[in-house]
Design goal:
Layout: E1 8-12, H1 13-24, E2 32-36, H2 38-42, H3 46-56, E3 60-63, H4 66-74, E4 80-83, H5 91-96, E5 100-103, H6 106-114, E6 119-124, H7 139-147, E7 152-158, H8 170-191, E8 196-198, H9 202-208, E9 215-218, E10 235-240, E11 243-247, E12 252-253, E13 259-260, E14 265-270, E15 288-291, E16 294-299, E17 307-310, E18 321-325, H10 331-338, H11 342-347, E19 354-358
Parallel strand pairs: 1-19, 2-3, 2-9, 3-4, 4-5, 5-6, 6-7, 7-8
Antiparallel strand pairs: 1-10, 10-18, 11-14, 12-13, 14-17, 15-16, 15-18, 16-17
Helix pairs in contact: 1-3
């Protein structure tokens, strides 16, 4: 791998494997694992992550749209790929690259019924998330259409949990589970056959594993940012001090001169900005990084491609490494400080940042 890049997202595939095995151990041996690799595998790089998961034996890979599926197929991925939102215009590409589709409304179902090419489909129901999904009372109509479309191969029915990560709202999760069970029973009775079912996500597996059904969909848990001490963050974002400057009292930093030095200071400029993933928010005392194992404050307004850090009280120089997140500061901790979630931080990591993978 090239070492020319100064800002690198280091991805530990062995930690990914350990997280996978930890979550798998909570499942029955026959339960299938669908790995969620949408949004560039939560910013980690979908091809390398998917190749590792394929080697680990996942049943399927879950992507958001057909373009994500095409990227994986063109990279040589052979595993089943399920497209969560196939849209109305991607039929030809989905057929060509042998992608499965999730159907969640009558218009999509009619589209795939009317086109006669063989295709694997998954039916999604709304059980309380009130996002994508058929309503419970549409089962009879769905089955009638599918029975008239012999080219469609029904692989599963599914839904999505809204609050599985919040134990204080367990009643809502259990209500969704109960509703999905009811839908499933009616659906199978009308179909006259058993059908695979999946509902649990990472937090569903951690908190409600006894409801795992035939398959589960693992996302944030694989990347190590679910709330479980046994799951380890698989990545670290490291940059460098690109320039050191000395400030005099009264000197300002960055756009808008929002930070003004009240004493002599030493500062470091780091080539990562809001275009990469950082929040532009100013005057936040929780904005920190680690340099030489020491917590250092970010000062001033973050620019598109850089930020400034106070290095007055540490022994540092140009070229020293800067940990934006990693061993000292986790993505979960950063998310809590920003009043957001790890998903948002991961998915905003710009693709211009070099990804380097290790697997040992």
């Amino acid at each position: 791998m090239s070492s020319a890049n100064e800002t690198i997202l280091h991805v530990d595939l062995k930690k990914l494997e350990n997280n996978f095995n930890y979550l798998k151990a909570k499942l029955n041996p026959e339960t299938n694992i669908i790995a969620v690799v949408k949004a560039f595998a939560y910013g980690h790089g979908d091809i390398e992550i998917s190749k590792k998961l394929e080697a680990l034996g996942v049943y399927a890979l879950w992507v958001s749209d057909f373009e994500e599926g095409l990227v994986l197929r063109k990279s040589g991925i052979k595993t089943k790929i399920i497209v969560a939102n196939p849209g109305l215009k991607s039929y030809s590409e989905i057929i060509k690259y042998k992608l499965d589709v999730v159907l969640y409304n009558q218009k999509l179902l009619d589209l795939y019924c009317s086109n006669k090419k063989s295709l694997n489909i998954h039916i999604k129901f709304n059980t309380g998330m009130n996002r994508y999904g058929f309503n419970a009372d549409e089962s009879e109509q769905i089955i009638a259409k599918i029975k008239d479309a012999s080219h469609l191969h029904l692989c599963s029915i599914c839904s999505h949990l809204a609050t599985s990560g919040d134990k204080t709202k367990a009643d809502r999760t259990l209500k969704q589970i109960k509703k999905f069970k009811s839908i499933s029973q009616k659906f199978e009775a009308l179909l006259g056959a058993r059908i695979d079912k999946h509902l649990l996500n990472s937090y569903g597996v951690l908190n409600f594993s006894k409801y795992q059904m035939n398959s589960v969909r693992l996302g944030i848990g694989l990347y190590g940012s679910a709330n479980d001490k046994n799951l380890k963050q698989i990545s670290s974002l490291i940059s460098v001090i690109a320039q050191v400057r000395i400030l005099k009292p009264g000197d300002s930093v960055g756009y808008g001169a929002h930070f003004i030095a009240n004493k002599k200071m030493e500062i470091g400029i780091v080539p990562v900005g809001y275009a990469d993933l950082l929040n532009r928010q100013i005057n936040n005392p929780n904005r920190t990084v680690f340099i030489n194992n020491t917590k250092c404050a970010i000062i001033g307004e973050i620019s598109m491609d850089s930020f400034v850090v106070d290095i007055t009280n540490i022994n540092s120089s140009e070229g020293d490494l800067v940990e934006i997140f990693g061993d000292h500061l986790t993505v979960t901790e950063i998310a809590e400080k920003r009043n957001t979630i790890p998903y948002e931080i991961y998915s905003r990591i710009n693709r211009r940042i070099k990804r380097i993978y290790s697997d040992s």
